[in-house]
Design brief:
With 284 residues, the chain is mainly alpha-helical. The protein has 8 helices and 6 strands; from the N terminus they run H-H-E-E-E-E-E-E-H-H-H-H-H-H. The chain has a two-stranded antiparallel ribbon with strand order 1-2. The protein has a two-stranded antiparallel sheet with strand order 3-4. A two-stranded antiparallel sheet has the order 5-6. Helix 1 crosses helix 5 and helix 3 packs antiparallel against helix 5. The chain is elongated, with a radius of gyration of 23 Å.
């Protein structure tokens, strides 16, 4: 499902930064180091353009894709034997109900104060895409971050190579004319590479655990309470590293880097670590 597009200053900043970095990388760093008309220059320009296109493509999809709406008719079926667990409120033990949206919350759904509605499998609200990251657009958001990290590191390597080549060829006068571009690019690329790499590492960890950012913070509290009571806490949606990967990114390894989301389900029910236990007890 696609959502309407509205002006966003953070999105404009991101698009401007992408355009600036792409222009500098192809027409300055590659050209001054390898030459755009040489075979190495052409290969690097084509490779970087491919990474940039995938980065922009996934970024656009993350912006316009609705993260997942809760159907107004949704009602949890507590008698359904195929659903071994139901999420309840911390206080009172009632089924989770959103007073603002006036409907029950499916598992892993949360209300976003910015979007002013409940979002399926909500991870967080991201100002840089002017959208929530949720069930339907989590994969494209993750792939965007992957390509953004590759693009930033690739561009940084080309920047260093271009600077090194200028110093070796003693092209001081020519290099001075591009000094501002090199400085601005370095100030953009270094912190971006670090920040995006940390973000990528964080989401790889979450995917391997089959958690959202919200569930991680809730899990810290649940672990503390369980330990305090002498129990062991286990995240109910943790199916094992490989199963968690296929649940989030899809069953085909070749489709993990493609912005397709045909195998993620409807976002109203998720496999849990207790499904096998429940099926075994039912069969008895």
């Amino acid at each position: 499902m696609k959502r309407g597009f509205s002006f966003s200053l953070p999105v404009t900043v991101v698009v401007s930064a992408i355009a600036f970095i792409y222009f500098c990388t192809v027409f300055i760093f590659i050209d001054r180091w390898l030459g755009l008309m040489t075979s190495p220059g052409i290969m690097n320009a084509v490779a970087f353009t491919g990474v940039a296109v995938m980065c922009v493509f996934n970024y656009g999809f993350a912006i316009v894709t609705d993260p997942g709406r809760v159907p107004s008719t949704f009602t949890p079926d507590i008698e359904d034997s195929e659903v071994p667990i139901h999420e309840i409120k911390r206080k009172g033990g009632d089924l989770r109900y959103c007073q603002k949206c006036s409907h029950f919350k499916p598992p892993r759904a949360h209300h976003c104060r910015v979007c002013k509605r409940c979002v399926l499998r909500m991870d967080h609200h991201c100002i840089w895409i002017n959208n929530c990251v949720g069930h339907a657009n989590y994969k494209v958001f993750f792939i965007f971050v992957v390509y953004a990290v590759i693009a930033c590191i690739y561009s940084l390597v080309l920047l260093v190579g271009s600077l090194t080549n200028d110093s070796q060829n003693d092209e001081r006068q020519s290099a001075d004319s591009f000094r501002t571009v090199y400085v601005i690019s370095g100030l953009l690329l270094v912190p971006l590479s670090v920040a995006l790499s940390v973000l990528l590492g964080w989401h790889i960890y979450l995917i391997l655990q089959n958690k959202t950012t919200i569930e991680y913070h809730e899990g810290v509290r649940a672990f503390w309470l369980a330990e305090k009571g002498g129990n062991i806490y286990k995240h109910p949606y943790d199916l094992g590293a490989y199963e968690n990967l296929t649940t989030v990114l899809g069953p085909s390894i070749f489709g993990w880097i493609c912005p397709t989301s045909r195998d993620i389900g409807n976002g109203l029910r998720f496999r849990t670590a207790y499904d096998g236990i429940s099926a075994a007890s039912t069969s008895k």
